[in-house]
């Protein structure tokens, strides 16, 4: 190792006089984690602490805010709610987020096509921010992909206070062959915009998680949403043809 | 969705060099991640399972390789490796140094590639060889795991090829016409031939005329001049004008700080292990041993951070056998009926970021199509899109419209559209292109390192159809 690049560098973040500034820089650039941030005595530096708290604030906002009604309308989604009646109840009682009421079942049957081959569900889950950031780009690419494959697509639904398994209740209500749930992931401190797509063949309440498939990490720095839309369409076609999802498809 | 299972491909590497010809057979273990989406197919393990003996490259005459002899050697070595061409999935053939300049190098390499396995590709070019030798010498892994800058110096019979790896990526190549075979001797120690590069650029070349009597002092001086050129090539820029005159292709304009140097190749091996000092200086009937000794004795040699390489003389063939095949991202759009495709010229569609309208995109694509066809009117080419701009639905739609219009106007309707993208957008671009022009076979492959590629070969899909093997390469026989 050479020693002539040991000079302190402002670029190396908070570490003063790093042994090897160049390697430290490569490490910090290679990963979104908070490494090489330095310290002030035993505590974080002021800047580091402020950034941490700002990111934490954004993560909390992603959980507690609501998806904009205008967006739901613009995307032509039929909006319903899970059995939870507020964010607080949704967070405190997970089971309510997995189910819909009998009245909601009626509303779904009135407002949506029944017996579709593919039912699209959008749920806020734990990040409304993720839905707002990704679904507008993802959904049209997904619909194009399904259309090109000749799959019969139902009326896309938005479920407020929805968890992953709410697609079982919605799919059961509409007698869908398969469902995909585009749902906001639990936000982290690196991104609060990450979305997942969960899949189920033959949705019914209580269907085990093992029977479900997933594409995760959909966001601008992960799998780009527009590419995810095309990929999800391909996976739905596979599931439709294989007539199964999850471990039944040989996934581990 | 893919199982977390490993898939193994058998890969062959064949190196027809100035002085020696070698074959290696390897197994590449692919890792296909359990979850769909962002993850890509990776080569988990590369195990060289058979190394042929190193044989002299057979020449029929000074400018012709003995094709039959090479083909027979390769067949024999594959048999010894316990593999037939039917067992071989992938790999590459490379012609290097002076061998690449022979009259029949190109047909020979094509023929070897064609008959040695399912998806074995033909390659040639000093810069490409430099990178492969570096990969074969472990420079990628080393520079990545240590976060260092590693230079590999591959000294063969005809050329010296330097590759500089920064953090796992080849950033520079420096190739010059200096090698151990620059002078050849006959059995009596008399000069049998002198390379043009020496005649043209070495001031004292007159003392080396064919048939001249052996004079160790003269040879030592020439070897020391060669060593000067090689060290200058490693240490520059700036470069000495003579080094520049000997350069094959461009030399870099900036000098990275090099943490580690590895010598490989037939002469490089002698440098690395210090054997050269004790050897008969004419053991190989050429200047190789003297050149290695001149490098070791050079006053600047000790300032280089030299490290031994495990693959030494086999660096190129190991690189060719294990590092030519890369894999696309897992989201691809392919009409598999068109695959494999071989030797497609790659033309970049640049400046697309600045082209806003479909019409502007069509124009730039049309220009690239024209460039691709320059010289021969073939419709077989690949367009490469380093960036199509922001990955939004509207942008992808506009770009696809422009590309499809350019193809509709200029390319026969049965001809495939082959596109390589730097961004992760193959599936959506492929889907949108297919919607715009449903009848044309369309292949879009993403997340490849596109830098410096002149040609591409794409194989049939692997990993349950989720990725394709790809070789981005050069084919330069007359440098």
Automatic annotation (TrEMBL), chain A:
One MF annotation (Gene Ontology) recorded for this entry: cobalamin binding
Annotated GO biological process: amino acid metabolic process; ethanolamine catabolic process
Pathway: Amine and polyamine degradation; ethanolamine degradation
Cofactor binding annotation: Binds between the large and small subunits.
Domain of life from the UniProt record: Archaea
Annotated EC: 4.3.1.7
Binding-site positions, adenosylcob(III)alamin: 164, 185
UniProt entry tagged with the keyword Lyase: yes
Feature: compositional bias, Basic and acidic residues: 22-32
Cofactor(s) the record lists: adenosylcob(III)alamin
Record's keyword terms, sorted: Bacterial microcompartment, Cobalamin, Cobalt, Lyase
GO terms for cellular component: ethanolamine ammonia-lyase complex
Catalytic activity line of the entry: ethanolamine = acetaldehyde + NH4(+)
Stretches the record annotates as Disordered: 1-45
Assembly and binders: The basic unit is a heterodimer which dimerizes to form tetramers. The heterotetramers trimerize; 6 large subunits form a core ring with 6 small subunits projecting outwards.
Family the entry assigns: Belongs to the EutC family.
NCBIfam families the UniProt entry points to: PRK05465.1
Described function: May catalyze the deamination of various vicinal amino-alcohols to oxo compounds.Would allow this organism to utilize ethanolamine as the sole source of nitrogen and carbon in the presence of external vitamin B12.
Name under which the protein is recorded: Putative ethanolamine ammonia-lyase small subunit
Organism: Haloarcula salina
UniProtKB/TrEMBL annotation, chain B:
Tree of life domain: Archaea
Gene3D superfamilies the UniProt entry points to: 3.30.420.40
InterPro entries: ATPase_NBD, EutA, FtsA/MreB
UniProt protein name: Ethanolamine ammonia-lyase reactivating factor EutA
């Amino acid at each position: 190792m050479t020693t002539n690049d040991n000079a302190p560098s402002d670029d190396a973040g908070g570490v003063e006089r790093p042994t090897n500034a160049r390697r430290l820089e490569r490490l910090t650039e290679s990963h979104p984690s908070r490494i090489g941030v330095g310290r002030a005595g035993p505590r974080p530096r002021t800047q580091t602490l402020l950034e941490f708290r700002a990111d934490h604030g954004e993560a909390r906002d992603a959980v507690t805010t609501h998806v904009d009604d205008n967006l739901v309308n613009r995307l032509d989604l039929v909006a319903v709610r899970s059995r939870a009646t507020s964010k607080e109840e949704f967070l405190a009682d997970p089971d309510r987020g997995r189910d819909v009421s009998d009245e909601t079942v009626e509303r779904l049957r009135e407002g949506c096509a029944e017996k579709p081959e593919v039912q699209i569900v959008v749920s806020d889950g734990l990040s409304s921010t993720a839905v707002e950031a990704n679904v507008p780009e993802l959904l049209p690419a997904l619909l194009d992909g399904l259309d090109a494959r000749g799959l019969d697509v139902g009326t896309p639904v938005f479920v407020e206070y929805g968890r992953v398994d709410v697609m079982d209740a919605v799919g059961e209500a509409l007698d869908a062959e398969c469902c995909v749930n585009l749902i906001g992931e639990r936000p982290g401190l690196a991104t609060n915009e990450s979305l997942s797509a969960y899949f189920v063949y033959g949705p019914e309440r209580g269907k085990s998680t093992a029977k479900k498939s997933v594409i995760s990490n959909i966001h601008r720095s992960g799998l780009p949403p527009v590419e995810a839309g095309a990929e999800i369409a391909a996976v739905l076609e596979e599931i439709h043809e294989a007539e199964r999802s999850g471990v039944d498809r040989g996934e581990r | 969705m893919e199982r977390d299972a490993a898939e193994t491909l058998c890969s062959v590497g064949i190196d027809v060099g100035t002085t020696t010809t070698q074959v290696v057979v390897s197994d590449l273990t692919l890792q296909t991640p359990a979850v769909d989406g962002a993850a890509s197919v990776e080569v988990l393990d590369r195990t060289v399972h058979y190394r042929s003996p190193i044989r002299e490259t057979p020449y029929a005459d000074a400018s012709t390789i003995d094709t039959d002899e090479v083909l027979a050697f390769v067949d024999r070595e594959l048999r010894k490796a316990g593999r037939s061409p039917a067992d071989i999935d992938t790999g590459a053939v490379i012609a290097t140094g002076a061998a690449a300049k022979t009259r029949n190098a190109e047909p020979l390499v094509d023929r070897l590639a064609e008959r040695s396995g399912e998806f074995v590709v033909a390659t040639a070019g000093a810069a490409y060889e430099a990178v492969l030798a570096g990969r074969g010498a472990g420079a990628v892994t080393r520079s990545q795991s240590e976060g260092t800058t590693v230079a590999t110096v591959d000294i063969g019979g005809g050329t010296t090829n330097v590759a500089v790896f920064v953090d796992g990526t080849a950033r520079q190549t420096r190739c010059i016409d200096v090698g151990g075979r620059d002078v050849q001797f006959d059995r009596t120690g008399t000069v049998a031939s002198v390379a043009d590069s020496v005649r043209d650029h070495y001031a004292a070349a007159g003392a080396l005329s064919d048939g001249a009597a052996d004079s160790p002092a003269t040879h030592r001086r020439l070897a020391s001049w060669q060593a000067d050129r090689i060290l200058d090539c490693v240490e520059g820029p700036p470069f000495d004008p003579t080094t520049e005159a000997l350069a094959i292709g461009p030399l870099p304009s900036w000098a990275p700080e090099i943490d580690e140097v590895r010598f490989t190749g037939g002469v490089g091996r002698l440098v690395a292990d210090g054997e050269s000092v004790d050897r008969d200086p004419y053991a190989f009937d050429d200047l190789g041993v003297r050149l290695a000794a001149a490098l070791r004795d050079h006053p600047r040699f000790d300032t280089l951070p030299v490290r031994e390489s495990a693959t030494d003389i086999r660096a190129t063939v190991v690189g060719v056998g294990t590092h030519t095949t890369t894999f696309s991202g897992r989201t691809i759009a392919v009409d598999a009926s068109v695959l494999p495709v071989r030797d497609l010229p790659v033309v970049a569609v640049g400046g697309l970021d600045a082209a806003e309208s479909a019409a502007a995109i069509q124009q730039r694509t049309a220009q690239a199509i024209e460039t691709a066809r320059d010289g021969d009117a073939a419709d077989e080419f690949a367009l490469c899109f380093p960036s199509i701009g922001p990955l939004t639905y509207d942008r992808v739609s506009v770009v696809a419209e422009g590309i499809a219009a350019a193809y509709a106007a200029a390319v026969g309707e049965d001809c495939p559209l082959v596109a390589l993208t730097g961004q992760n957008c193959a599936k959506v671009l492929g889907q949108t292109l297919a919607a715009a022009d449903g009848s044309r076979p369309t292949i879009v492959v993403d997340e490849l390192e596109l830098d410096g590629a002149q040609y591409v070969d794409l194989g049939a899909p692997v990993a349950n159809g989720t990725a394709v093997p790809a070789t981005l390469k050069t084919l330069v026989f007359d440098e």
